[in-house]
Amino acid sequence: MNPFTIAAIVLACVFGGALAGQFLGKRLPRHHLQEDSKDIVKLGIGVVATMAALVLGLLVSSAKSSFDKMSDDLTLEAAKVVQLDRALAHYGPEAQEVRSTLRHNFQAAVDALAGPDEFQDAKLRGMRESAGEVQDAIRALVPRSDEQRELRSQALAFAEDAAAFRWLLLLQEHDSISRALLVVVVLWLTLIFVGFGLFSPRNRTVIAALFLCALSVSGAIFLILEMDDPLKGMVRISDAPMRTALSILTSN
């Protein structure tokens, strides 16, 4: 289920809770709406609101950590590929074919990250087959001197690091945010809005205000889910380091 759909469900639940609270407020006996009752309900809502705020903070922190880590890994991958290409360039003309293969595979990776989600999924899965292609080509090189032998070892180490990142992309295709935790937070938010609606005046201004508040809450959930999957959706990590590395590879 995509983040937009989940956010729409959250909006329906939370705003529906506010409308349900107003509906209940009309039908409760008057003595249930006295000041003492209101104070107790407000205290309860305050406790739930505090718990919801703490858990939302944890969700934001988890999603932001996932987003930042993937961005750092992407930059590191670009640097490793440039280092690999430099090592192969110093190796000599014998490594020219390996460099061409490296450029082709890296171009496919950049296109996959920049493309639509469906295209990206297909390309990233196809990268499993090409992850070891460059490594095999480097192993096939036959050094003729100690310098070439050292450069071959360096190139192989860089290629292994780059291939490890590609496998990391494939293995991290899961949500780091617990769905059960998200459901609990939505239930708490719905309960809070039921309390808001229970004692609120029944007019268009209040309904509009409650809707905007519910929209803000669902927007926060949407951003959390978007950051939790930094390679897809509207909120993506920048592919600028990859494109810069690609321009370096193609200019040499």
Would you count the extended β strands for me? 0
Helical stretch tally = 9
Please tell me the total number of domains: 1
Radius of gyration: 27 Å
Strand percentage lies at under 5%
Mean of residue pLDDT?
Answer: 82
The run of helices and strands is HHHHHHHHH
Sequence stretches where pLDDT stays below 50 over 5 or more residues = none
Helix-residue proportion? over 70%
The separation of the N and C termini measures 44 Å
Helix and strand composition category: mainly alpha
Q: What general outline do the C-alpha atoms trace?
A: rod-shaped
- For the report, how would you describe the main beta sheet? none
Topology:
Layout: H1 3-27, H2 35-91, H3 96-114, H4 117-130, H5 133-139, H6 146-171, H7 179-199, H8 204-228, H9 240-250
Helix pairs in contact: 1-7, 1-8, 2-3, 2-6, 2-7, 2-8, 2-9, 3-4, 3-5, 3-9, 4-6, 5-6
Structure, explained:
With 252 residues, the chain is mainly alpha-helical. It has one domain. 81% of the residues lie in helices and 0% in strands. It has helices at residues 3-27, 35-91, 96-114, 117-130, 133-139, 146-171, 179-199, 204-228, 240-250. The two termini are 44 Å apart. The mean pLDDT is 82.
Describe this structure in a few short sentences.
The chain has nine helices and no strands.
Descriptive labels:
rod-shaped
